[in-house]
Design a protein that fits this description.
By secondary structure, the chain is an alpha+beta fold. It contains six helices and seven strands, in the order ααβαββαββααββ. The protein has a five-stranded mixed β-sheet, with helices on one face. A hairpin with a 5-residue loop joins β6 and β7. The termini are far apart.
């Protein structure tokens, strides 16, 4: 009887384990499907505006409804919108890539060295900024060089493009059980109600910025996706320098 009871108990436990595993797999699959549907909906929405502009000008040019200077302006606007779409599609592709199940691209990475190299490049192309560096040496983590470099470049490009050329910049990297990375500037920053807001999906905080520079406006979404890929947390706050502080906390593994 005891043997039969043990066999019966093990059988029930195995069956329950299979049901739980199958249920978890179905829940994960459903979550991934919902995320993909949300992403596709957001992507379609983001592409709709430039496509509408391109279609409108193409119809005017096809019907020979524009002449002289107006025709030149139409071609200029078409080229501008096409470049914007190219930028948008490239950023959407990297967001889709970041949203996929984790791959094997992680390895031991010296974040101090990667950050210093990017800052050196930034100092050359944006020489007007007074840059304060508070970077601990040899801060190493298990991460993706490709994605973390994209994060750093996005953050520094954001300063170069949107902040006045002479505002101060402060870059902090502190090691420890968790890694602290802060990139901040003395520019105008984001709209006041954006600080502390969680970045979800294809989040744009200031659409006028992308219109002015020709970018996709999805830089912060990409940066947040990179941090999430590394199991970290990204916070946007007002810097004591006056502008935006991008505050990131990353685990070492």
């Amino acid at each position: 009887r005891l043997l039969l009871f043990i066999i019966f108990t093990n059988t029930v436990a195995s069956f329950a384990s299979i049901l739980i595993s199958r249920s978890s797999a179905l829940a994960f699959e459903r979550t991934q499907r919902e995320k993909m549907q949300e992403f596709l909906g957001d992507a379609a929405h983001e592409l709709r505006t430039p496509l509408t502009v391109v279609k409108g000008y193409a119809e005017l040019l096809e019907g020979n409804k524009l002449e002289g200077d107006r025709q030149v302006q139409a071609f200029t606007r078409l080229n501008s919108e096409i470049k914007r779409m190219e930028s948008l599609i490239a950023d959407l592709l990297i967001l889709a890539e970041l949203g996929e199940e984790e791959g094997g691209e992680f390895s031991a990475l010296n974040l101090s060295q990667l950050l210093s190299e990017s800052v050196d490049d930034f100092a050359v192309v944006a020489s007007g900024h007074a840059i304060e560096l508070l970077i601990d040496k040899d801060v190493v983590l298990d991460g993706s060089e490709k994605y973390l470099q994209r994060f750093i470049v996005n953050a520094l490009t954001n300063i170069r493009v949107h902040a006045p050329h002479d505002v101060p910049v402060r870059i902090t990297l502190k090691g420890g059980r968790d890694i602290k990375l802060i990139i901040e500037d003395g520019g105008a920053g984001l709209p006041a109600d954006s600080y502390g807001e969680k970045i979800q999906g294809l989040k744009r905080f200031d659409r006028s910025r992308s219109r002015e520079t020709g970018g996709s406006g999805l830089g912060l979404s990409i940066m947040n996706a990179v941090v999430e890929r590394h199991k970290g947390v990204l916070t946007l706050r007002k810097s004591d320098l006056g502008g935006l502080a991008i505050d990131v906390q990353l685990p070492r593994t």
